[in-house]
């Protein structure tokens, strides 16, 4: 089986190849991301559009992810990329610093589209918001701690072993295996 992963991030493609028993190729396409409070709705819409843009010959996968902070009622959630770009991780840490509830989760939804079917698969990794630590990763990794270590302190292999995207990709892999 061959899949197109709609992303500009080659690291995401490598991660998908680790989880999926498929030939995964990168498809650099900038689909119109709808505004929604639901990751699944955003990813599914992106997958439908991307499938058509890719010519409708091969299934596509799209992922949408976000950081959900309990004490901020799930903020920034699906708006994480925008919030990181406009506020930055230091300001998000400042918002969370004095909260009683700094529990958080990274969530990812991977959407699969093949022209007949659109399915979504969710992965989540629990953690908490902490003062920035570490130099690796990207985005909110320096303020997201899982099992005593921020994602920015983990090497790529350790982070991928617990990643929210990896968990969603594992669910997709199970579903694809059942369809064969």
UniProtKB/TrEMBL annotation:
<dbReference type="InterPro" id="IPR029001">
    <property type="entry name" value="ITPase-like_fam"/>
</dbReference>
<comment type="similarity">
    <text>Belongs to the HAM1 NTPase family.</text>
</comment>
<dbReference type="GO" id="GO:0047429">
    <property type="term" value="F:nucleoside triphosphate diphosphatase activity"/>
</dbReference>
<dbReference type="Pfam" id="PF01725">
    <property type="entry name" value="Ham1p_like"/>
</dbReference>
<dbReference type="GO" id="GO:0009143">
    <property type="term" value="P:nucleoside triphosphate catabolic process"/>
</dbReference>
<dbReference type="GO" id="GO:0005737">
    <property type="term" value="C:cytoplasm"/>
</dbReference>
<dbReference type="InterPro" id="IPR002637">
    <property type="entry name" value="RdgB/HAM1"/>
</dbReference>
<protein>
    <submittedName>
        <fullName>RdgB/HAM1 family non-canonical purine NTP pyrophosphatase</fullName>
    </submittedName>
</protein>
<keyword id="KW-0378">Hydrolase</keyword>
């Amino acid at each position: 089986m061959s899949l197109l992963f709609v992303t500009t991030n080659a690291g995401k493609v490598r991660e998908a190849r680790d989880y999926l028993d498929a030939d995964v190729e990168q498809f650099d396409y900038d689909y119109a991301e709808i505004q929604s409070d639901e990751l699944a709705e955003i990813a599914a819409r992106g997958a439908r559009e991307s499938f058509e843009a890719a010519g409708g010959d091969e299934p596509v996968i799209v992922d949408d992810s976000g950081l959900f902070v309990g004490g901020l009622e799930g903020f920034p959630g699906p708006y994480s990329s925008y919030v990181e770009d406009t506020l930055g991780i230091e300001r998000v840490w400042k918002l969370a610093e004095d909260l009683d509830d700094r529990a958080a989760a990274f969530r990812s939804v991977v959407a699969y589209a093949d022209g007949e079917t659109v399915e979504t698969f969710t992965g989540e990794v629990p953690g908490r918001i902490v003062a920035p630590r570490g130099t690796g990763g990207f985005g909110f990794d320096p303020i997201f701690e899982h099992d005593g270590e921020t994602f920015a302190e983990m090497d790529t292999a350790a982070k991928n072993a617990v990643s929210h995207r990896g968990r969603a990709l594992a669910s997709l892999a199970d579903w694809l295996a059942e369809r064969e």
